[in-house]
Hints:
Layout: E1 4-6, E2 12-16, H1 22-35, E3 42-45, E4 48-51, E5 55-60, E6 66-68, E7 71-73, H2 83-92, E8 103-109, E9 116-119, E10 132-138, E11 141-147, E12 154-159, E13 163-168, H3 171-174, E14 175-179, E15 189-195
Antiparallel strand pairs: 1-2, 2-13, 3-4, 5-8, 6-7, 8-15, 9-14, 10-13, 10-15, 11-12, 11-14
The structure holds 2-oxoglutaric acid (AKG) and fe (ii) ion.
Amino acid sequence: MALTQIPLPGARIGFDPHWLPPDQADALLEALLRDVPWEVHRIRLFGREHASPRLSCWIGDADARYRYSGTLFEPRPWPRALEPVRERLAETLQVGGDNVFNSVLANRYRDGRDAMGWHSDDEAELGSEPLIGSLSLGATRRFLLRHRSEPSRRLALELPHGSLLVMSGPTQLHYRHALPRTRRPVGERVNLTFRRIVAGECGDTGRGSRR
Length: 211
Ligand SMILES: O=C(O)CCC(=O)C(=O)O
Ligand SMILES: [Fe+2]
């Protein structure tokens, strides 16, 4: 099925709630929970280091180094289970050659207390209008987008098992996004944001920082 475009002024958002069939999504989730070297990333906020409230792993080609929230990440190699997903995503989004996704930030939200704060994926390494493919697995969580200066421009989306959310064009320039905590009892969720690092290692000029 094709991506549905969700209208939001100044953003480009595509969504397919059923991108990965449930049996493939189940198998991928199981493989990632087992094979990814999950760790607590330390992030810097206002000059102080904190443990981020989730487990993470930065995965990518050897040259795709990435700096965010003040820390430089050397990528871990691609788990085998992710290779076909990377290929299918490139087909869905019609990216190839020099534009293939060369990295993924994997995040694991163990329960409703794990979350991600307001940020934009606007690090210099991603280029000016990054294409970001976000695949969700496991428990459904609510994803929020909010315009930087026009509070009425906002969107809330439930991201179910196997869903694909695509942010592109000027989305990161104009909007922040977050994955808030919830008091509802929810199971584990894994999210994969596929990205393309265009500039090797650069300075940390991103305005956002994931909390
Ligand atoms: O978990 C999510 O859906 C959001 C993840 C995210 O925004 C990121 O990795 O930059
Ligand atoms: Fe993000």
